[in-house]
Prior knowledge:
- With 320 residues, the protein is of the alpha/beta class.
- It is built from 8 helices and 15 strands.
- The protein has helices at 41-48, 119-137, 155-166, 196-203, 216-226, 247-252, 267-282, 299-306; strands spanning 2-5, 16-19, 29-38, 64-72, 84-87, 102-106, 110-112, 146-149, 170-175, 188-191, 208-213, 227-235, 256-259, 290-295, 314-318.
- It is globular, with a radius of gyration of 20 Å.
- Keywords: NADP.
Amino acid sequence: xxxxxxxxxxxxxxxxxxxxxxxxxxxxxxxxxxxxxxxxxxxxxxxxxxxxxxxxxxxxxxxxxxxxxxxxxxxxxxxxxxxxxxxxxxxxxxxxxxxxxxxxxxxxxxxxxxxxxxxxxxxxxxxxxxxxxxxxxxxxxxxxxxxxxxxxxxxxxxxxxxxxxxxxxxxxxxxxxxxxxxxxxxxxxxxxxxxxxxxxxxxxxxxxxxxxxxxxxxxxxxxxxxxxxxxxxxxxxxxxxxxxxxxxxxxxxxxxxxxxxxxxxxxxxxxxxxxxxxxxxxxxxxxxxxxxxxxxxxxxxxxxxxxxxxxxxxxxxxxx
Length: 320
């Protein structure tokens, strides 16, 4: 099969493209003929070594993708051969991800893609969608509640906003400047370059029930100012790995801080997230703008684009 890989960590130039043996599914696994491979910042950080050293002597990157099941191993459902699926977690604790013509994953990680849902959207669900679902629903239903979503144009946050709206919540989103355009699923936008706490409290005078947080260190004071008593801050990222927190304001509001590491969510939570994401996509409740679809041999350019703040939208590889 044609694939991309790296044998050592470093800049995007360490990525190679060539031929590797076709993988074969083992017990409880399925093989997917990949049509789109989704790239996340975490894939880039694994390649650079920001998270840890090389877990394997060679890595085919990317955890997300979409394609068609073309083979199954013992114990997997042979009736699924020929079905379109979206894949999540392919390279989580595994060597071979979706930047290849074929990927083998445990059967639950290949989720049936509803008819009418595009390959581009399917490839953009994956880890961002699973993380977004946990951020929104990890503490129960949100119907009738108010959810604040920071950085609402990001891959995770945009899906979180749409899922919260799909779940019956009123969604407030933060953006950098007041000139930002509307975002699907978001009732109101609040600009961080003004007085965001006052703006949020004008929209939700009693405070917000849940906060989806992309920068816990930068937004801790704002979050403490607007969280309702017994509210939840679900954080999936921070710039400073030792963020300072306004302890007493959060304590007096009985605030829960939920930290989200998608690779290690409970299996039941991942399964529920996958089912809900597919249902919401089938209902037309989700979109994931795509900035670029590049061929496999331009994977280094795609990795650089993922980390470029001027690039808005998902970056995908076409595996063709």
